[in-house]
Amino acid sequence: MYDLLKGLRVVEGSAFVAAPTCGLYLAQMGAEVIRFDNIGGGPDFRRWPLAENGASLYWEGLNKGKKSIALDLSNPAGREIAQRLATAPGRDAGLFVTNFPVDGFLAYDRLKALREDLICVRVMGWADGSQGMDYTINAALGLPQMTGPADDARPVNHVLAAWDLLTGAYCAFGLVSALLARMRDGRGREIRCPLSDVGAATMANLGFTAETLLGGHQRPRMGNDIFGAFGRDFTTRDGQTLMLLAITPKQWSKALEVLGLAAAVAALEAELGVSFAADEGLRFTHRARLYPLFERAFAGRAAAELAPAFDAGGVTWGAYQPLEAALEDPRLYKDNPAFQAIRHPSGLSYPAPGAMATIPQEARGDVRPAPRLGEHTDQVLAEVLSLSATEIGRLHDAGVVAGADGR
Amino acid sequence: MYDLLKGLRVVEGSAFVAAPTCGLYLAQMGAEVIRFDNIGGGPDFRRWPLAENGASLYWEGLNKGKKSIALDLSNPAGREIAQRLATAPGRDAGLFVTNFPVDGFLAYDRLKALREDLICVRVMGWADGSQGMDYTINAALGLPQMTGPADDARPVNHVLAAWDLLTGAYCAFGLVSALLARMRDGRGREIRCPLSDVGAATMANLGFTAETLLGGHQRPRMGNDIFGAFGRDFTTRDGQTLMLLAITPKQWSKALEVLGLAAAVAALEAELGVSFAADEGLRFTHRARLYPLFERAFAGRAAAELAPAFDAGGVTWGAYQPLEAALEDPRLYKDNPAFQAIRHPSGLSYPAPGAMATIPQEARGDVRPAPRLGEHTDQVLAEVLSLSATEIGRLHDAGVVAGADGR
User: Does B43 touch chain A (CB under 8 A)?
Assistant: First the structure.
């Protein structure tokens, strides 16, 4: 972790991917992030993948470096504690991240009555408050029909929950931005981040919507072809699949050089009366003529022969590899200084990352594991709500709170 | 736009998706974002999709609300202007977003010599500085082999550049976090965000890497099945494809109720000796038994019949629709208050979004179009670098800078 956000206290009431990653990014940059959960865990506490003992590898991945307090959220007293935590005093507190419903007991107006300058970042499904999750929003945006081989009409969902992830990072940006504004004007704000708006806006930011408005229909599916430039997967003599792409003139000329295609492509340019170097769009338009040249060039060489030549020539390429191979890849995992092997709540030890950014001027602090559920219940009640040991004991006795692993 | 970041001045020297979206998010939250480009445009200035007149719908989508200055970056005098812009004085300036190479004329140490407390957020491909783009990093992480129907072994690239997008939002978060730290300690920092680390860390945060370490191989491809819970696409009697998912017990029971499957599923539970309501993982384990029940239930009903029943029952579902249908969807585009029809540099008028978040306490300011290339050249040189009209005229005469559309 780094300490850019040292001194901030963020309270998180969340599940699934978007809101927990928001809290994760804040914690990895030095904020104190206190997560409250139902006793026994929220709806994502047992989500797959699981360790052999049933612990969720997903949950312990998304909640690294946070503190955990377990509350009975079906009990009004438990709900009140959640409200008081979110709105506890402190100049660098009053920062709440959640995906709880917009109109429930954690509605902004209710919390604002307890702390006027509260900043609340709220992940939502649809902007109108109705249920939506990454996969349903994605289906509504047309992407699954644009994805996959052109010879197959079945919609293809993404495996990586891209809308959740983008929303989580944007929420972290929104929270710190609202804090900067509050430091200036003293005002609290609710920052609502619906997946539906994140999705709709992004499709517009990238030009997909304007393209569809102009053409009348969305981009057709075209397998792994890079739209509007040159790029695709190709197979080598020894059956390896490599991704090659060329957007800039330099990327294009380097690829031709290493593959020995300069003369063949020049001949094609002469035949067609075009210059592929000057216009990446022409490479896309004429890709059906270009692909066979590249397919033959790849089919004639082994991956082990191409890789060093591509690297030496500065070609933009990459091998397709399964995640088990990535784990042995020194640039991704094996020698990556952003990772550190630590012991997790599942009892397993394995490498885990800190912040996704690197600050060369500063040392990376230790990667911290996720808490056990309820591990910090007593500490948080004492430190944040100033409850006495007697009061905390009463809450345990009444079943309103629970300590580590339900004790 | 909103004004959370009012008063900040950010300089952007960037191309492609990640760094431009970082600047876009900052601009839409009220920062002044000045983008410098090569005269005639950088490597992404003509990127597809294009308007009929050749203007890039992609470029004008990613650069909304920014100012533009055009420089000859092959000329040392143009490079010096870029350096001076990035490091210009001002308490709320000295904020630079880029994807230029880590060791070139915009290297952090060179810029730091001009402004000691500079904050530089740098998008990179691989963390070691070598070339990597979204599609090559994605191939290296195993996702394309996990994506798509189980009966097809071909790798499937994502169409949405998820790593670029996540990196862009994380960079915006990194920049405001570093500003908060600088306000506290007066120190500048370089925040390096390599796509490779964003990808590697995210696969770990979501539990993919731990799963692979434990099992020895990555998750197999399984079409549109939601891993570890219940969810998939189903086809209605009238041939519509709908996404249905159930992670929480409530989502599960609602879906069974509306589809009239409670009895059939109870019989299956009795046969197998399990409770699907209590454990979403069991729904996944036994999905081959559950799917036929759902397929029959969907095949017996029309989409128009299911949609209101799903909505009334609070089921988590969504229709697959092409983007042209999404544009008519009131919740996504047609009546979305985050969008506003404006005139763009292409000369076309079409709806474009402001910030992806909504702040109910504040009015949404107008959505601002992207600049014409070089539209603010003279203004930026005068305001930020305090150059006189004579000096600016000399730079034009020498071809070091250019005004709107190359004039």
Answer: yes
Q: How far B205 CA lies from chain A's nearest CA (Å)?
A: 4
Active site residues of B: 164
Q: State if pTM tops 0.95.
A: yes
**What tens-digit pLDDT sequence spans chain A (407 residues)?**
999 999 999 999 999 999 999 999 999 999 999 999 999 999 999 999 999 999 999 999 999 999 999 999 999 999 999 999 999 999 999 999 999 999 999 999 999 999 999 999 999 999 999 999 999 999 999 999 999 999 999 999 999 999 999 999 999 999 999 999 999 999 999 999 999 999 999 999 999 999 999 999 999 999 999 999 999 999 999 999 999 999 889 899 999 999 999 999 999 999 999 999 989 999 999 999 999 999 999 999 999 999 999 999 889 999 999 999 999 999 999 999 999 999 999 999 999 999 999 999 999 999 999 999 999 999 999 999 999 999 999 999 999 999 997 77
* Residue of A25, A321, A327 lying closest to B209 (CB–CB): A327
Task: Name which of B161, B247, B318 is nearest A140 (Cβ-Cβ).
Answer: B318
Question: Do A176 and B181 make contact, defined as CB atoms within 8 angstroms?
Answer: no
- β partners of residue B38: B71
**CA-CA distance, A81 to A59, in Å (whole number)?**
23
Looking at the DSSP assignment, which residues form a beta bridge with residue A13?
Answer: A98
Optimal mutation site among A10, A112, A173, interface B, most CBs of chain B within 10 A: A173
Query: Could you tell me which residues come within 8 angstroms of residue A40 by beta carbon, excluding any fewer than 6 positions away?
Result: A70, A373, A406
Which residues of chain A neighbour B194 with C-beta distances below 8 Å? 358
With residue A121 as reference, give the H or E element that holds it.
strand A119-124
Q: Any chain A CB within 8 A of the CB of B402?
A: no
Chain A CB contacts of B368 under 8 Å are: none
CB-based contact, B54 to chain A, within 8 Å: no
Strand (E) or helix (H) holding A169: helix A162-185
CB pairs under 8 A between A and B: 495
